Amino acid sequence: MKKAVITKRGKVKPFTPDFHQKTKVWELINPKLGSKYLQFRISKMSPGGTDDYHSHPDSEQIIYVLKGKGKLGVGKKTYSLSKDVFAFIPPGVRHHVRNDGNAPFQFVCLWAPPPKPKDWVPPKK
Q1: CATH architecture of 14-117
Q2: Which of 9, 112, 25, 12 is nearest to 62 (CA)?
Q3: How far apart are CA 31 and CA 44, in angstroms?
Q4: In this predicted model, what pLDDT tens digit does every residue of 44-77 receive, in sequence order?
Q5: Which of 31, 34, 44, 116 has the most CB atoms around its CB within 10 Å?
Q6: What are the E-state strand segments in the chain?
Q7: Cβ contacts of residue 84 below 8 Å, gap of 6+?
Q8: 3-state secondary structure of 35
Q9: What integer pLDDT is reported at residue 3 of this predicted model?
């Protein structure tokens, strides 16, 4: 039987994903929680926080900034992110996010379909 999932972020235990530094994530929906087509999380990056350059070969990704400022590296370009800025990252595009400011940087990430752990492709050395 299919059912709706309704919760508050405060009821979800935050974690730090692999390849992330100074970042807390609240994963609100994913396949384990009942979604077949989406993964949705809120990330809070402390000053100096970052994730490593990576790609998701089969997943589209959306980033939407809730508060603070950060940078999005896409390939060799860097974009400034701030409140209400939206970014779309197609499958297979190398990217990373960082907070090089002095305040927390908070944003939503949405993937479709949800990336599998093996789909996370770190940078080539």
Answers
A1: Sandwich (2.60)
A2: 112
A3: 22
A4: 999 999 999 988 999 999 999 999 999 999 989 9
A5: 44
A6: 20-29, 39-51, 60-67, 69-74, 77-82, 86-89, 95-98, 105-112
A7: 64, 65
A8: coil
A9: 80
Tell me the whole-structure pTM to 2 decimals: 0.90
* Matching residue, tokens 């990056």: 45
Q: Domain-by-domain residue ranges, the chain?
A: 14-117
Among residues 58, 63, 40, 41, which one has the least CA distance to residue 113?
58
Rounded alpha-carbon distances, angstroms, from residue 2 to 12, 25, 58, 111, 115: 21, 26, 25, 21, 22
Per the CB < 8 A criterion, the answer to whether 107 and 49 are in contact is no
User: What's the rounded Cα separation, in Å, for the pair 5 and 88?
Assistant: 25
Any residues with CB less than 8 A from the CB of 23 and at least 6 apart, and which?
16, 17, 43, 44, 45, 46, 49, 50, 51
Residue indicated by tokens 């990704």:
61
Partner residues linked to 21 by β-bridges: 50
Q: Could you identify the residue written with the tokens 């190398």? A: 94
State how far the Cα of 121 lies from the Cα of 57, in Å rounded to an integer. Answer: 8
| 78: β partners | 73
The answer to whether residue 41 scores a pLDDT higher than 90 is yes
